[in-house]
Give the backbone structure.
Amino acid sequence: MKSFNVNNKRLGVTLVVVGLVIILFGLQINFQGNIRELALKNSGLDEFKEYRVLNDKLIYGLPEVWSSENGEYKVSDILYHSSFSSSDIGLNGYIEVWSNEDALETFIDRSKDYTVKEYTYDKYTSNKVQLDSNEAYEVSYNMSSKDKSYNIYEYFVSLNNNVIKISFSVDKTKDKESNNLVFKSIVNTIKYKE
């Protein structure tokens, strides 16, 4: 029969370390939320206006100080389109709902191919992210025309046979790191009901 000795000092130290790790993890989650909130307040973008469209199937929020305008498109696959802008931060963007039965990656590739034809771009990155329980991708790249350069941030969210695409285009000279937190906060307001 083997005897089992417990080193009380080691056990005590291990429990303290595990407790500290748990506390730090909890503080990190709270800290990230506070940073996002502070970035929104610092940018003057902490008040959101709620938009309900497509018979309340799509609900999303944009900062109240941004201007927004619905548009009509001749493309039959686009179920909804709305443009938004903010001259203060040099931003233009849009949110669209597309009817799509292909894989989300295929839809993103088609969107990329269209961009390549129209503009010069570089530093293209695409990352898979989770948005609620939906498959989503975060895409970013730099785009240039003959007289301007823009940083583009796009989010693609797959919802059954639809894709929500939200695109933010920021004048490269006015872009700042806190914009990314603002964009993610906007994307997190999206709710879609079938």
